[in-house]
């Protein structure tokens, strides 16, 4: 099976905002049916393929949730293949969960704290999961920052002729603590492994009531259905007599959350065909804000029965056109409309509601092997792809919509013809704007024009029926690390096979938000707080424009004067993010928000001397660094008076005060006035460290003379309350 290996290939051209490049990747677990100890178990190796366009070395931490962290180094010339583990049995893998309704212990239908991975890097990297069993193979490409969202619809194989190891799953991982997740739109009669559906009850629409749970960062929850279980469906709606509600029961399930999560979905095993063979098909999704209404699909080399397109509606009354033509041939079944000439024709059902799907059979591809689909509202698009004549050779990947901003290079896809040590052969499908200049590098080519590749076989370009702006290519026999360079829109998928195993995935085209702002410490001595803190953006070159936003407690608002400013200096406390705008002709402006960083105000500097109050030994009197924020001392004399002396001073008695410089004779003292220099009527409000036995004590009616070092003056202070009653110049 030469598994359609989901190539770790992500669109980054010139820092494309539609690249799956990211500094952080969340990879929830995948799940399979372990009921029969069959070849559904992915027991032949699980791997992360990590690569980067950076020519400099990038440090990457691969964090097993609930386990150890492995640090690796990657660069453009040195991708890294990370062996996840050596699967020793059912549910032994960090990345794969075995689901069985007969198992005493199961990790499905519950919060799990020790499955999946979080990958963090010092610069943007690609991360792809590849895995295999004895006869199957599959892969997913992490969408990085593009994967984070709050509204998802699940896809998988339809499994119309299921066996005991056909299953469909969804898995959710939280990216923040206290994340509330809800799963619904699952039909009554669907049987979820290790879950008591009777506890939920059934809604008025005939669907199960909400499955709700709370996750902390890195925790996950997995739902699995075994496709040959569940209630029967009406004979009039059957594709196969073996079909149950579990066959496609999770397709269209709605996953929503109050904070960003990451979702994987698919089937291990399953099929779009009805012959009984099977393969893996799964991928990581993006949420509703990043799907679209226009798609181009490129057919693999499999048979029409499993070279299918699955479109999941999120909006009621969703309609589609195929290659510019309305749908006129729709076979209605339990979840949606099967569009094809392969099955019997029912009355045309030209619209479907939220949670239902269109399954477009492979016989509706154009002669040149591409298909243009438009929908009246954004839909979640999945593509089944095959290789050869066997139904066992199929894969499934999540497909990006057409976007004018999907510009970029893909550099690189590591070891495109391998899963672990197993060799695969396969093909690369490319969708581009007509006239785009594309070059490719692999083990046999270095930056060769797409039409002049050595060894590799190129078919195309082929015009897209129904959309004259696009064309497609299929390239086979690529090996090693693959880079694709384009000067215009670029969408790439990869499919491969080895024996009876196939896998596939899309590697470009998904919207990624801006990188989280970077904190830069300023000149202040107190650290990362405003106004000592600066915030700066990453690469924003492919956003039409951008601005800074802050939430100080009442929702996000634009920071005044921050449009297209690479660096700002916050002046108020709050959560700051970067909002990037993408403008495509004839389309509504799209915006994407970075993750936020929290900024606190520095503690106050009450006396304005540059020393924040917590670090200032004299926080309400301007001071100097030598004295840790305190003013230079007031020197005290030991010759006290019994009455106020006005406008004159007995200098013969206090002469030493004017010349006193010995720091051993001083009080640290300051006053209540509004200006640095004391005035008559101010009060000495702090006083200590005096060395005279008859120091300045506020317990008598006597008076004391004190020297103002900084102002060359002597002040007369009433000891009972510290009031300054006279000031004299030293001559």
Fraction in helix = under 10%
Described by strand count, sense and barrel closure, the largest sheet is: 9 strands, mixed
Strand segment count: 51
Helix count? 1
Radius of gyration: 35 Å
- N- to C-terminal distance: 102 Å
What general outline do the C-alpha atoms trace?
A: elongated
Structural class: mainly beta
Low-confidence stretches: 1-18, 635-652, 661-667, 687-700
Question: How would you state the average pLDDT, rounded?
Answer: 82
- How many independent structural domains? 3
What portion of residues belong to β-strands?
35-45%
Descriptive notes:
A hairpin with a 2-residue loop joins strand 31 and strand 32. The protein has one helix and 51 strands. The longest helix has 9 residues. The radius of gyration is 35 Å and the shape is elongated. It has 731 residues and is an all-beta fold.
Name a few traits of the molecule:
disordered N terminus; 3 domains; mainly beta; single chain; 41% strand; elongated; eight-stranded antiparallel sheet; 1 helix; nine-stranded mixed sheet; 731 residues
Q: How are the SSEs placed, and which strands pair?
A:
Blueprint: E1 22-27, E2 30-33, E3 46-51, E4 58-64, E5 69-74, E6 80-85, E7 96-99, E8 111-112, E9 117-132, E10 137-141, E11 149-153, E12 167-174, E13 179-184, E14 211-215, E15 220-226, E16 254-270, E17 279-284, E18 292-298, E19 309-313, E20 320-322, E21 325-326, E22 330-332, E23 336-339, E24 357-360, E25 370-386, E26 394-398, E27 410-413, E28 418-419, E29 422-423, E30 425-433, E31 438-442, E32 445-449, E33 457-464, E34 467-476, E35 482-486, E36 490-498, E37 501-506, E38 518-521, E39 533-536, E40 545-551, E41 556-558, E42 567-568, E43 574-582, E44 590-593, E45 597-599, E46 634-636, H1 651-659, E47 668-671, E48 684-688, E49 703-708, E50 713-718, E51 724-729
Parallel strand pairs: 2-7, 23-24
Antiparallel strand pairs: 1-9, 3-6, 3-9, 4-5, 4-9, 8-15, 9-10, 11-16, 12-15, 12-16, 13-14, 13-16, 16-17, 18-25, 19-24, 19-25, 20-21, 20-25, 22-23, 25-26, 27-35, 28-29, 30-34, 30-36, 31-32, 31-35, 33-34, 36-37, 38-39, 39-42, 40-41, 40-43, 43-44, 43-45, 46-49, 47-48, 49-50, 50-51
